[in-house]
Task: inverse folding
């Protein structure tokens, strides 16, 4: 029976939130979801992008997501940031392009610090109304304590339980203490690539282990497709760290780093899924199919079908 206090709380909830039924996307004990990043950069208009993501998830039967922060940030700023990026990793850009990119990043940081948190409450309400939980936020730590604090504030409003950050060792050291105070799990994404030599980049298996030692709040968020393309034995990496992985992004990629539809590459998706199932560790497995496409929702549905068949 509801208490008067419970009824009072319910009175202030949106009707859609009260009535929404949570989509259950657990298969054989494995919790599946979507890495919403895959809906960015494929030519879809930014306006209405969340509706496309949500519709795809509902039709595919996915009840959780990792929200890619740029999907809910000003598109014009991200367009300027991308325009100033090098054409390829390590490539050169003009001084003017670099300055323009830096200015756009500065404006984006200001927007994050000043935009009303109601903006993110509205985003959460959209997902709640569809029965979808925003379990994770793929975000950015910023360059100051204030900016990092704001990232956690945003994650809290969204209802996220984990914040995934693609950070370096220096940033991981800076983030550690605040992450513990805010009681968030932080997923260290790094850049799994055995050929990288920058000591600040979390790119090799041992460097992930070293990063985790910095904080009790740290776990691994690993993209097994990226790892396979970076020279990893992805199955061995996961098997050796089952108790320290929070999220596995499921992508099929060849060893030449080209992403392909699931089943056409070198990534051991089936084997990793069966390992997670048998281990019974609470590892989230999120659909991530970032190959070139003309129909991303169909790709998501096909990929989830592949995963279910594997189990």
Result:
């Amino acid at each position: 029976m509801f208490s008067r206090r419970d009824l009072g709380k319910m009175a202030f909830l949106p009707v859609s939130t009260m009535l929404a039924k949570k989509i259950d996307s657990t298969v054989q004990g494995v919790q599946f979801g979507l890495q919403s990043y895959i809906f960015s950069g494929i030519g879809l208009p930014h306006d209405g992008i969340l509706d496309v993501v949500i519709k795809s998830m509902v039709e595919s039967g996915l009840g959780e997501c990792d929200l890619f922060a740029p999907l809910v940030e000003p598109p014009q700023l991200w367009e300027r940031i991308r325009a100033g990026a090098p054409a390829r990793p390590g490539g050169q850009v003009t001084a003017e392009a670099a300055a323009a990119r830096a200015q756009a990043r500065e404006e984006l940081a200001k927007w994050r610090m000043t935009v009303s948190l109601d903006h993110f409450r509205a985003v959460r309400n959209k997902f709640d109304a569809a029965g979808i939980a925003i379990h994770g936020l793929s975000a950015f730590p910023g360059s100051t304590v204030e900016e990092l604090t704001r990232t956690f504030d945003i994650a809290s409003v969204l209802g996220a339980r984990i914040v995934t950050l693609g950070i370096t060792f220096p940033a991981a050291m800076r983030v550690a203490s605040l992450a513990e105070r805010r009681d968030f799990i932080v997923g260290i994404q790094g850049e799994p690539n055995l050929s990288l030599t920058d000591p600040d980049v979390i790119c090799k298996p041992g460097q992930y282990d070293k990063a985790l030692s910095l904080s009790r709040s740290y776990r691994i968020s690993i993209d097994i497709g990226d790892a396979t393309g970076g020279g990893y034995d992805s199955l061995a990496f996961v098997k050796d760290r089952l108790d320290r992985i929070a999220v596995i992004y499921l992508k099929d990629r060849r060893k030449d780093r080209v992403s392909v539809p699931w089943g056409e590459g070198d990534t051991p998706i089936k084997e990793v899924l069966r390992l997670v199932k048998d281990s019974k560790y609470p590892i989230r497995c999120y659909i991530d199919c970032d190959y070139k496409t003309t129909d991303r929702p169909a790709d998501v549905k096909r990929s989830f079908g592949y995963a279910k068949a594997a189990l």
Q: What stands out?
A: The chain is about 45% helix and 15% strand.
